[in-house]
Amino acid sequence: MGSLLKELFAYMSARKKWWLAPILVILVLFGGLLILAQGSAIAPFIYTVF
Amino acid sequence: MRILGISAFYHDSAAALIEDGRIVAAAQEERFTRKKHDPGFPENAIRYCLEEAGAGLDQVDHVAFFEKPFLKFERLLETYLANAPRGFASFRAAMPVWTKEKLFQKSNLVKSLGQFSQSGEIEGKLLFCEHHQSHAASAFYPSPFDEAVVLTMDGVGEWATTSVAIGRGNTLEPVREIHWPHSLGLLYSAFTYYTGFRVNSGEYKIMGLAPYGDPRYAGLIREKLIDIKEDGSFWLDQSYFNYAGGLTMTSPRFHALFGGEPRDPDTLVTQREMDLAASVQKVTEEVVLAMARDLAASYAIPNLCMAGGVALNCVANGKLLRDGSFKEVWVQPAAGDAGGALGAALAAHYDHLGAQRKADGRMDAMSGAYLGPSYGQKEIEKRLKAAGARYQVLSEADLIGAAVEALDDGRAVGWFSGRMEFGPRALGGRSILGDPRNPQMQKTLNLRIKYRESFRPFAPSVLREDVTDYFELNTDSPYMLLVADVQEKRRRKMSAGERALFGIEKLNVPRSDIPAVTHVDYSARVQTVHEQTNPRYHALLTAFKERTGCPVLVNTSFNVRGEPIVCTPEDAFHCFMGTGLDCLVIGNCFLNKQEQDEALARDYKSEFAPD
């Protein structure tokens, strides 16, 4: 997790997208909750734009 | 200097290895795992590439990944924000995948690559390349040109959906980009979805279906869905689409515009789907042509290189070549995401490390796309014996003679020879061959061997020296990425009754001297065969010409519907025993179906989910 945060910090510096930081934190936490809620991470069966 | 390129975790995972800029090996993971479009970590493909180079990961200097995960995540977040609260369902589906796996791609890669390294020194070798930079590098660096305009178009990478770069020597300078959600690839995919085919694999079917239809919706597409500017750039009206925030490609507004819900894949394809296919194909061609014309005028460079999924649209490529805005067009044979593995490695070599590059203006650096595994004669015999096959070992001349005789008799021949191809096309390494003069061949191959939809056309392989005698084409097309018309003199005139036929009924009418490879609009997806890159296949075609006067063969990939192209001799033997194939050539082994043990026949058709 530490290295991920370091990488995210480097990415935000490079892209100058600091405004994404709070959203990232909230979304990552929220995503974490969703994992806890549903247990599996399976991409949907359509054009997976992600 | 060795560089390993990896494309993974999306679709069509692959690995490629280059040594001092020379492409040593490249392969898609699906060929090893037998899972079509396998998106997983390409463990088997990497193992193969390292074996081919005779090296371990510790002897590899860099590992280049084909895209930048954080930039993709940024695009996702900004898209969800822009669409909120709409798009929550998509958000809910995407976030677990990202927070569990994709955000940790770097550490996951390091972990997965660990099995190939003794030293464990991996992280310092990792490089990440942008998705379209990978495509552009795969299009330009192996091309024969020293200078070219490089156009890449696909669904979406990080942000870019279309990009233009100028390639000079060992550099690629990006000059134009079109960003998500405006994407020509996704427009095509939206119609693939709407006509009831599977997105990311059914696009070929739309292209094959288009000649049966009338482009009567093209005006509507231009008027409502896409705003095409003079320079070929475009803007999509997102109210008709749902891919940016939802879990489908098209929106209710799209369905209302075209008068109905998407076709249920279990129902029959009708004239309406054919017309929709013809319409989106026409608009796609217009965009590609407009863009090419503007690029040719803006940069005054005679060469064009292309990659990205849209570059696999060989009908559009053929029109682009005939349009003449560029003198030469070169398309990366692995133009889809698998080719990103090769592009990432090449981008690391030239863009990142600044290595020198030499292009001779004639030959490309793809070795005919024969970059996958091959098997020696002893190995083939050992494997066939273990599989229970009954075969004869023939000399080269006898083998070619036997294959030609079978083809002339109207039999379908499995042809497994040398290294496996990299990219979606079989080019005479892992092919099923037939006699193109036989009017029943298209139906036989589609229904008895490939188990696929009867409307799908087959492609011809033709001796390079004879291409103009049969097709309106006078250039190399070694990768089957250009569509050209059959020569007028080879065509058969239609009667009034035949001309009046609609849709798939047209298919049953022989349209030329080589009906099995002539589509209903007289077009053909041509592969020119060259002695330098595939001497054995060239010799087969030459022998077929000597016997029959025809230098053309039907060439389709060695697989059934939904199955990845065969990789090993065992895969080929199993496919042979599970289909209506009559003969099989593997290396110097010749197999006849009648001589095989019937107990080894298998129900192959249901082994693979339809694509």
Give a written overview of the molecule.
The complex is a heterodimer of chains A (50) and B (611). The mean pLDDT of chain A is 73. The two termini of chain A are 21 Å apart. Chain A contains two helices and no strands. Helices cover 66% and strands 0% of the residues of chain A. Chain A is elongated, with a radius of gyration of 14 Å. Chain A has one domain (2-38). With 50 residues, chain A is mostly helical. Chain A has helices at residues 2-15, 20-38. Chain B is built from 20 helices and 21 strands. The model of chain B has no long low-confidence stretch (mean pLDDT 95). In chain B, helix 15 crosses helix 19 (535-548). Chain B is 35% helix and 18% strand. The two termini of chain B are 39 Å apart. Chain B is an alpha/beta fold. Chain B has a domain at 377-607: Carbamoyltransferase, C-terminal domain (DHBP synthase). Classes of the chains: A mainly alpha (50), B alpha/beta (611). At the A-B interface, helix 1 and helix 2 of A face helix 3, helix 4 and helix 7 of B.
SSE blueprint and pairings:
The complex is a heterodimer of chains A (50) and B (611).
Chain A: H1 2-15, H2 20-38
Chain B: E1 2-7, E2 14-19, E3 22-28, H1 30-33, H2 43-53, E4 62-65, H3 69-83, H4 88-100, H5 105-113, E5 126-128, H6 131-140, E6 147-153, E7 160-168, E8 171-179, H7 184-194, H8 203-209, H9 218-225, E9 226-228, E10 234-236, H10 252-257, H11 271-299, E11 303-307, H12 314-323, E12 328-331, H13 339-352, H14 377-387, E13 392-393, H15 396-408, E14 413-416, E15 430-434, H16 441-449, E16 459-463, H17 467-470, E17 482-485, H18 496-499, E18 523-529, H19 535-548, E19 552-557, H20 569-578, E20 583-586, E21 589-592
Parallel strand pairs in B: 1-4, 4-5, 6-11, 11-12, 14-20, 16-18
Antiparallel strand pairs in B: 1-2, 2-3, 6-7, 7-8, 9-10, 13-21, 14-15, 15-19, 16-19, 17-18, 20-21
